Amino acid sequence: AGESPAGAKAEPPGPGVIDLGAQSGRWAAFQERHRLSCEEAARLLLDAYEYRGLVKHTGGCHCGAVRFEVWASADLHVFNCNCSICTKKQNRHFIVPASRFKLLKGADNLTTYTFNTHRAQHTFCKTCGVQSFYTPRSNPDGYGIAPHCLDDGTVQTIITEDINGKEWEKAVREHKTIRDMSKP
């Protein structure tokens, strides 16, 4: 019992089970060497493949209640907007697709401010008041990340581009790439 008849094909592994064949020993050694669970090792491999050329940055608010990770270049293209709210908050940010952003903790500690068109979602920590990321009006399917809220060690350079948010519609219409920055 339990044996396959001659010539019968072996069933493929079930969902969540992967036959690594000759790589199984290598996989086990990798997990052990880096002290990773199978899921952690798979995530590391998938991240390295899917986000080639990008760096995993981590960051958060001042008090630490809100933490996130974001995959972006080590060389950041940051917008310095002069609209009313960005001027008051000194909101300099770079834009990433939602698929490259993960809130690690603090969803229950975020609150949101909106005004005018209510498309931009200005999220900030209820405890310390820091906005470490938000949903920009120009890219409602992505995130604007405050580079000054990233942990040290992953940013190589920052190039800052002024954007005329006082004339937002015109500035966004004339900008060649801003609306595509949240596309994977």
From TrEMBL:
One Pfam family here: GFA
Q: Which Gene3D superfamilies match?
A: 2.170.150.70
Question: What keywords sit in the KW lines?
Answer: Metal-binding, Zinc
Q: Which GO terms describe its molecular function?
A: carbon-sulfur lyase activity; metal ion binding
Which residues belong to any copy of the CENP-V/GFA domain? 57-169
UniProt cross-references to PROSITE patterns, sorted A to Z: CENP_V_GFA
Per the record, the similarity remark reads:
Belongs to the Gfa family.
Q: What name goes with this protein?
A: CENPV protein
